[in-house]
Each structure stands twice: as structure tokens, then as C-alpha cells.
Amino acid sequence: MAVKQNMETVKKYFRVDRHDIGFIKFIIEAYEGLAVMTTVDRSRGVVELNIAPGCEAEIDLILKDLKKELLIEAIDFYPMGHGVMEREPMQTEYLYINTIGCQMNVYDSEKIANVLQPLGYELTQNVDAADLVIVNTCAIRAKAEQKAFSFLGRMAKLKKKRPNVIIGVGGCVAQQEGRKILERMPFVDLVFGTHVIHRLPEMVARIKQKRCHLVDVKMYPGIDETNGTSDAPGKADVCRFVTIMQGCDNYCTYCVVPYVRGRETSRRPESIVSEIQTLIDQGVREVTLLGQNVNSYGQKEGLCSFAGLLGKVNAIKGLERLRFTTSHPKDLSEDLMFAFRDLDKLCRHIHLPVQSGANAVLKRMNRKYTREVYLEKIERLRQICPDIAITSDFIAGFPGETETEFLETLDLIKTVEYDSLFAFVYSDRPNAPAAHFGNKISDAEKKARLQALLDLQEQLTIKKNRSLVGSIQTVLVEGLSRKQPDHMAPETESMIQWSGRTEGNKIVNFNWTDDREKNVQEIDTGHLVHVAIKRALSHSLYGEWVRPRAATPDLKGDKSYAA
Ligand code: 5AD
Ligand code: SF4
After folding, report:
1. CB within 6 Å of ligand 2 — which residues?
2. Does the pLDDT value for residue 18 go beyond 80?
């Protein structure tokens, strides 16, 4: 039966990759009037199928076939969420997001802002002006969790003053605690987990209409393939994050991630490339690919390897720099080491968390590598790519860590000579097996070990930074430095300080000293420039802009060289 005007059709809604819309429409409509497809929201890939009466089963078969190759996901129809027909005129309302935790949460918060935009929400930095407040929580350590609850304590007061404000709790603590958050904090309107960001518009719209409380912490096997953050309002940054996979299958015994982010799942390369392309069109110059364990990207799904994905991203026109985090040492392949050498946009910096330098501790942590294997990988990496910057994560005072084992960790730090590191005192996490391990280390001892570790690294960082004094570094300008020199007057415009990062991810603040008019053109946010390093500080470098030499016509992928 052919679809005719005014016919009583069955309407169904789907999310598809927006690049496939034309192709899917062509296939469906090629079947002589079974259904008509219209695009509801191109940027989100939302389409409507008007199916002729009695033709649903046939359409289901066609979709089943297409699904073998393409992303086609049935979605609930929610007019406001997808900005569809008959939308009531919208009033601007304000959304305040408090993001706690890692880069993945930063990305998710952008996605939250993005999906709520069609409901008329604009981001605000002022929580008192907000109509909707969302705290995107982190559960990795007890301290991060406390931060979320203390913010929510403040929100209880806001809610008393302005009962109409909607309070939402998302992220890892929401996933972990679910409904318990409502029981503990009845002023909270919405609790949503890490897998349901795409459902936010529907949930917020329902709360606005019915003033009800909602909890959704369901975990889904797939991954949300929508172009996560590319439409995020108010974003004009040079550097952005792009999540390429979610979840983790490694089950390190101290870690809550597998329980709150679910099983490891990778996005399709095409959807990653398309999101990055959109970001570049908006002025982004550097992307950092995010995953808990990027080295195993695509393996489960039979997609390309991580090195293969880097190759595809490296080829995107307009991208200047590419980074990624985090790598698990056990899965660091030679392919990836060679990618650092061969891909011109891939910054020579790897974050390779080791957690401990003692084999017995690594075993109890279930890290699946030994100190020796880790050191061999570092050596090979430096053979292939001698100037690579290496950073790491450490946990001080893991249950049962002896003084000797801790000294082995200090020894590993001295052996590797990291560029910088992150270190944390061990913290018991719900669900994580180490919470039940015996021989817990006292708080005082954990703190003392953490301090010893940080003191050692500070000396090494200063040594590394000093070794760069006199070199010329390629810096991607991220904007004006937050700390401008004192007594700046308009006639000393050349003293304006700019800020950016080297390939090795070190912050560089710099000025220019001569040739003012021309330099003004050449130094700007998003530009790659050369900076002669003059001073090393403990957390940053200071330098002066220099004109690129004739011998180095192209700054992209340029190596640092001695001045
Ligand atoms: N306690 C302390 N640190 C932890 N990390 C993860 N879980 C814990 C925990 N329970 C640290 C690890 C990891 C980083 C993101 O956080 O070092 O690499
Ligand atoms: Fe946590 Fe280990 Fe997975 Fe990293 S690799 S997210 S530390 S379980």
C-alpha cells in the first residue's frame, strides 16, 4: 500500500548517523510507498518514518537489514527534546553545570549542554541565576564524591529560596547511588546515570510538566554515537576532548570505573572523524581522544586498531594537534609507538599510568604487567621516539603496601624520570575488591608517602623543565595568559602575555619583544608559534616569541630544536 497524503500512517522515530540520512531515505523510499522518511533534526540524526498501514513488518525487515551496517536506533518521540514540529515558543532558561572529575566528565557535560539546548537552555556561570542545575559527579575517590555532596548541600539552600529550580545529579556517583540520592536529598529532582544523557531532554521536560522526581541509571550495551559535543553552546575553545570509547573491562582492584561506566565499548571511527571535523569547522585546532584504555580501542567490535584510528584522525584537514589519554601499559603496542614517530599531528606525549613500582602491589592491583615489562616498554618507546614526554599516575598507600614496596615506587620514578605525574592516596571505593583487602595503611602514612612521591617528582620536573631552557618549542596558542605582568600600560603592548602548550603538554607563557606590528598578526589564539624558552618554573615555562626560521617553513609536527 502506498503512503498517501492524509492517510492514517504509523509514525516512528529513529536516531541515525546524520551522514547516512540520505542513503537510508533512498533505500526506504525505493520500496514503492511503504513509508516516507522525513528529517526531524539533522544535527542529532533524528528521522521520522511515516509508515503506511499494514506495512510495519516489511519496514522492520528493511531496517533490520540496514542495521547490520548502519546505526539505526528506535527512539521515543519527545517533541521538545528534539526540537520537532509544533514546538511551543521557547523562553530562554539558564543551565548551570558543575563538572567534577576527569576529562570524560568534561566531555559529558558538553554533551549535556548540547542535548538540552533545544529545550531553550543556555549555559550560565552563575548558579543563582540558573533554572536547571546539574552536578556531573565523579566517584573515583571518596574526596571527589564528598565534593559533589557538599555542592548539593548548597543546592538545598538554593531550592528553599527558589523552589522552581530543577536540581539534577548525573555522572558516576549518580550511577553508583541511584535512588539512594533521592532518599538522602529529597530536594533533588533528577538522578541520571552515565549511559542516559541522550534521555535528558525527555526527563527534564517531564519534570517541568509534572514536578515529579525521576531516576534513570540503566546501563545499555551499546554506545551513544551521536555527535556528542559539537554543538555545545558557548564553546569556542582551541582544544577539545572527544570520547572514543566508554567503560572498562580491566577491573583493577582499587577502581570503581567498571561498575559505574560499564563494559568497554568503542565508537565507530566514522562517527569520531565526523565529530572532529565538525569541531574543526568551529575553530578547534587540537583534540584529545578519550577512553579508559584507548589501546584496546575497537578490539571487541572488530573496528580498526587504535593506531589505525589515530591515522584516520591525523588525516583530517585543519587539525593541528592530536593527543589521547589514557593508555594501559599492558596493551601498549609497537604500532602505537611507531605512530608517535610517524604521525605528524600526534603530540609526542604519553600518559602511561603505572600506579606502583612494586611487582607484589601491581599483582594485588590486578594490573597485569610487572615493573620489568613496564620499564622495557618505556625503553622501547624512547628508542623509537627519543624526545617523547612521559607522565603517569600513582597510588600511595595501597592496602598492604610495605615501606620497601613504596621505596621501589620511588626508585621507578627516578629510573623513568617522568615529565610530571599525578599521585593520589589510596581510597576505598564501594564495589572495588581492594576495599575488602586487609592491612590498610593509616591516613598519616598514606599522606607521608604521597608527599615523598610529590617531592621527588618536583625535583625531576624542574630538572626536565630546565633542560628546555635555550630550546625553541612549538606552542599552540590557547589564549592570553591568566597572569599578566604587573603595571601593563597600553604603550607596552608587547608585554601582553600569551599562553599555550608544547607538544609535551607543558604550559608556556610568552611575550614578544620586537617587530610589533607584524607579530600581532602572527600571534593569536589557535596559531602554532615558535617560542624560545628563557626560564623554567616548577609548573610552567616562560619564553619569548621568535620568528620561524627559513629552514622550518611548516610548523606542524615540528620538532623542538636547540636555539
Ligand atoms: N584510590 C586512589 N586513587 C585511585 N585512582 C583510581 N582509583 C583510585 C582509588 N580507589 C587513581 C589511579 C587512576 C587515576 C585516574 O585515579 O591512579 O589512574
Ligand atoms: Fe580503572 Fe583499571 Fe579500568 Fe583504569 S584500567 S579505568 S584504573 S579499572
Report:
1. 248, 250-252, 255, 257-258, 292-293, 328
2. no
